[in-house]
UniProtKB/TrEMBL annotation:
Entry-linked InterPro entries: HATPase_C_sf (IPR036890)
Gene3D superfamilies: Histidine kinase-like ATPase, C-terminal domain
Keyword Transferase: yes
GO MF terms held by the record: kinase activity
Top-level taxonomic group: Bacteria
Record keywords: Kinase, Transferase
Protein's recorded name: Sensor histidine kinase
Length: 70
């Protein structure tokens, strides 16, 4: 929510997938980005429970897409 000052965040949950799409800033792999620690924690939790994490840019507009899949 911190990086989406305007626009929206959509969260959808199904049996095997949690999908979060926002219209904030695009995902960056740069180490000076502030995305890292929270997503690192999510990735470690998912790995511990057998889920996979996919992180990238929102395919439809500026923003980020995160999918957690079992």
């Amino acid at each position: 929510m911190r990086f989406t000052q305007q626009g929206h965040i959509d969260v959808s949950v199904s049996t095997n997938t949690i999908r979060i799409v926002d219209t904030g800033v695009e995902y960056s792999t740069q180490t000076e980005s502030e995305h890292g620690l929270g997503l690192l924690i999510v990735e470690r939790l998912c790995n511990g429970y057998g889920w996979s994490v996919s992180i990238g840019d929102n395919p439809h507009r500026t923003g980020c897409l995160v999918e957690l899949t079992r």
